[in-house]
Design brief:
The protein has helices at residues 17-32, 38-50, 54-59, 118-123, 198-204; strands at residues 78-82, 85-88, 93-94, 97-103, 106-110, 115-116, 125-133, 136-142, 147-154, 157-161, 173-181, 184-190. The protein is of the alpha/beta class. The protein has a domain at 78-204. The strands form three sheets. The chain has a five-stranded parallel beta sheet. Strands 2-5-8-12-10 form a five-stranded parallel beta sheet, covered by helices on one side. Helix 1 runs antiparallel to helix 2.
Length: 205
């Protein structure tokens, strides 16, 4: 009697780097069109690069056919607080380059739920020019986003206090070009799911 044959399943072919890169390109396109936030993009891109199967890879592009949410069509490239207070949080459009001015005023800006411009996704960087005169600027970025600070302070201060977590693969670097005179610039990071009110987070800075 012939021995019984054991039919073993053929393993699915491994995901290639080209397939992972193609998935990330779809994410970049969706992010540049305002269909996902900076936080969502970084999470999905991380899953794409770590995917071992096509099923895993398919999950990162789910829901990309949805139209852009309300509030993401026009980038906010210039923010000014002159003898006033400016707050920017929730879902809004972050351009490749922007300017923040705080003159005898206060600017409080949360990037965690912002969508980013296609040019920023392509270049992997967002440049923000910050000018402070007798005022303050407080900035919150998602955890894992790299922040670089250039420039200086005269009779003022600039400080970045980021949570000690690994950089999120695929997120753009936020470069701050600052000039602070008799004022302060403070940068911190926080997870998107943090339940604290935005005002409380700003108060901690």
């Amino acid at each position: 009697m012939e021995p019984e044959r054991v039919i073993r399943p053929v393993p699915a072919p491994a995901v290639t780097d080209d397939e992972r890169e193609a998935a990330v390109e779809l994410l970049q396109r969706a992010c540049g069109e305002g269909r996902m936030t900076l936080e969502e993009f970084s999470e999905r891109a991380g899953v794409a690069w770590a995917a071992e199967s096509r099923e895993e890879l398919a999950t990162v592009t789910e829901g990309l056919s949805a139209p852009p949410p309300v509030g993401t069509s026009q980038p906010v490239s210039d923010m000014s607080a002159i003898f006033s207070e400016h707050k920017q949080y929730g879902r809004w459009r972050l351009p490749r380059r922007m300017r923040i001015r705080s003159i005898f005023g206060a600017s409080k800006i949360d990037l965690r739920e912002a969508t980013i411009d296609a040019e920023a996704v392509r270049d992997g960087v967002v440049d923000i020019t910050v000018r402070v005169l007798f005022g303050e600027v407080k900035l919150i970025v998602p955890e894992g986003v790299e922040v670089e600070m250039y420039g200086g302070a005269v009779f003022g201060s600039r400080k970045a206090s980021l949570n000690p977590v690994p950089r999120r693969q695929g997120t753009p670097t936020v470069r701050l070009h600052c000039k602070v005179t008799f004022g302060e610039l403070k940068v911190s990071s926080a997870p998107i799911g943090q339940r604290d009110r935005v005002d409380r987070l700003f108060d901690r800075l």
